[in-house]
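User: Teach me something about this protein's shape.
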Amino acid sequence: MKKRIIYQTDYELRVLLAQGKTLIEIQRFQSISNGEAEFAAYLKHDPKTPISWLVDTTQEEYQTVLIPHVLGKDRRDLMNHKRKRMFEHAIYNYGVVQGREAEGRRDDRVLFTALSNPSFLQPWLDLIASYKVPLVGIYSMPLLSQCLLKYLPKAPYTLLVGHTPQISSLSPAGLRQSFFINQKLQFSRLIPLDTKNPQEYANYVLKQIVATHHFLDNTQILPETKRTEPVSVIILTDTHLLDVLKQSISKAPAELNILILDNLDLVQKIGWKIVFEGKNEVEGWYLHNFVSTQLSPDLFAKNHYAKTVDRRYFFYRRLRMALYFTSALLFSGMATAGGFILKEASVIKQKGQDIKERTEKRQAELVVLRLQQPHNLPYDKVEIIRSVVEIGIHLKAQHLSPKRAWQKLSQVLNQHTYLFLERLEWGIGYKKTDIFQSVAGKVQQEHFDETDETIESKSPLEEIEPAKNFIEGMRLHGKIHPFPGNPQQFLEIFERFVNDIEKNTAFWLVDILKTPYDPNQAFQGKIGSQDQVSKAPFVIDILIKHSYAEK
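Assistant: First, the predicted structure itself:
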């Protein structure tokens, strides 16, 4: 995965591409001349790759203050209030808690930073927004340089000095000095580097280091109780400047402990490779190259200056990726579930085939047994035939669908608006007890043909005879909604409903298991709770006789 980094100074923009352990500088755009138009053309060519924006400017302010130690929302509100008071007109600002005081009230130490002149940044951000380029975040170069300290010798007080590219049209390069206490940024200073002569360069760097140290001392950024301790000064420089710098540090004050590091050594330590215009280069390495490696895809950096509106397209991109990932998981899950379903279907199909084969075998045996006399029929054969009959009923009734009965019932229900159906049970079987396990009433047998073996068997031989008919059953659990009028009319409504079922549906038998309301109960003191009366529940069974489908 690749990551695009924009490095911006007051003079130009540089586009870097981080991929793996390689950092490639691919293009530059100057703030003057036709830079914005060229940058717009570049974004139009590649609007989808996210951008991490690294700002290195002389127009960045730093202030460290103490605030009361609170947590959660109170801390956020206190920091926001303090930041607005300190940087009232700076729309790009940031605050970070760096620790607590060791004595006294143990207040929190907070570093506030801000871009005092956002106009140098806004035109470029407007171009990004116009092309809907995902912006990961806007990062402060000095704040992010804290990540480099883990590769350098540790000290309580560290002044990191490194070269930067051209910061104005009048200077060929820049010099960035950042001061850290316990690995936390306190102050940073960016100044022009006007000379390329090695000796003049060495003298100038040492002069600026001494000036910065005096500034830290005078402004009390360097704690007064610790001023006797030497400050560790680490200079990152190119190989050809090492010797001349080593000669000049002999003139440095005793309170400065200066260490000069070759850029090449640091590159090898962090394990990265920088490519400029297709060529590997060691000389010409700048501080931002090292810092950019800390914005690589496998590392995390907290956003400093970007607002929510600036990062909206990055949020949309992450949301799309989350949806794509979720869809992939769902598709994978569906495919896996489909495989299990197919496997289960294959097992069910095989079981059905086995049942079919056993049924055909038993039916063949039954044909032979029918030719025998009943008194010669062994008991084990009777059990075999009973199994054949039960299996046959189940298989032959599979042609029946409840749709037709439900449609007829629906037509009747449409005529009775006060009736509400809460539950419906449906099934098929030899008799009613085969369909519904718990029966509160009895079906009158005289409603069926007396010769119908589905209702009653008359002899052992008749018991094993295949039934000519089977029963389709529906059990309705419902209630009558309250309506204006006498509650005793519940029974009349229910009776009309039952009559309509029997009148409009031929061959349907209605068995009433529970009526909604019985006025006689009032005289017996059993009318029940007011809730039961108002709901008027009822339960009925509807039984339909069917003949088996002809082959």
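Now, about its shape. The chain has 16 helices and 19 strands. The longest helix spans residues 312-370. If you'd like, I can walk through any region in more detail.
User: That's plenty for now, thanks!
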